[in-house]
Efflux transporter outer membrane subunit (Simplicispira hankyongi), 489 residues
Amino acid sequence: MTHRFIFPLRSALLPLVAALAIAGCASAPTQAPEPLTPPSQFKEQAPGAPRWVAAAPAEAQARGAWWLVFGDPSLTALVERAGEHNTSIQEAAARLAQAHALLRQADADRLPQVGLNASSSRQAGANTVGGTSPAALHTAGASVSYELDLFGRLAGASTAAALDAQARDALLQSTRLAVQTDTAQTYLALRALDAEIALVRGTVDAYQDTLRLTERRFQAGDIAELDVERVRTEVASTEADAFALDRRRAALEHALAALVGDAASSFSVPVTTWTTALPTIPAGVPATVLTRRPDVSAAQSSLMAAQARLGVVRTAWFPDIALTANGGYASTDIGDLLKWSSRAWGVSALLSLPIFDGGRRDAAVQGARAQLDAAGASYRGQVLVAFREVEDQLSSLRLLHDQAEAQARAVRSAQSATAMSDTRYRNGYVSQLDLLDARRSELSNRRQALQVRASQYDATVGLIRSLGGDWGPLPAIPTSYALTGHRRN
């Protein structure tokens, strides 16, 4: 005779729960990574080095809407349009939604799982009701299962998923900033080309005036035909330069269309006068850059997620315990299935602890540790890149300011030389070669000045991007065509 001893489930589990809770202390907690120690100030703003002085703003700008400091309605419209319709931003937003869905899945594993089930089967064997004769069994009921997270495996997985979502959120912000700055830089480059095209075509008109004068003097027998051909060469060569600039403008316009999410065939930017303001951006201190840059924040969240996953894989050395309960009805006659006499229920606890797995758990821990090391290196590298990019743009702005001043002096001298050469040529005091050289020098210097100015805009937007799209509560005042800040030691 076989005797069955039934103990209360709670009493049977208490020693096991106590033992597992003590062992659970071995799980590794998730800790925030130690940030790199940032320098106290940027090299370009070191004592004794030239500094940019930001004037007080004329009016407060919206925080984060950095493009407003340029005072260009067309630029504002394009940047905001890109923020809404750019496909890269939409892709990053979809990946963020996917990360949030994975987080909800990880959180759901920590909750009790409830389900309904029903079955109907016909089977034969020694364990069936009818012996070896086929018998039917119909069941209907509900089941509840819950995994005890004594070692933090489920909590660690949820933490890692939450950090992944934070990283994706930061990457979305980083993508949005990248698209916005790319849009601004492309637009400003296009406006610079518009100004350069106008300059070159204006020079063509001046050459044509010179050509008409030269042809009249040739017809009068004052000069040789060689002088006429020289001017015609300059006219044709300068026209060719204008067409080359038109080709570059078309390519920039098409790139701008892709950035704002439009087809290049139906997108255009009208040619207007370049009146975009050129602001002065305060860089602040290096420590604030780490808090503002979304890519650094994403790298930090990824590092913390890798650390959380290392803690999760370490819990594989501890047992898993799950509690299940089910209740419902079971009957060999489907007509009696829902009768009170057909009720059935059961509770169980399942303990699982792998003993030999061929080194699988060791490999998982080693892989998670390698991922943590890679994430740490990536985080440190991202911080160093952030500092480098700010220094690059600060040095570019400082040197471009000096270059712009020198180039402005060159332009003034070239304009004066052209005016004097034109007057003296018309009066017959200098040769045609002197006039052509003067015009060629003026055109070259004025184009170089426009290119330096375009580089100043590009570096300013680049600095904004390097700072994370925001530089604190004091936006800089916009100025027209040149920086208003003066250098001081």
In short: The chain is about 60% helix and 10% strand. The chain has two domains: 35-110+150-317+360-466, 115-148+319-352.
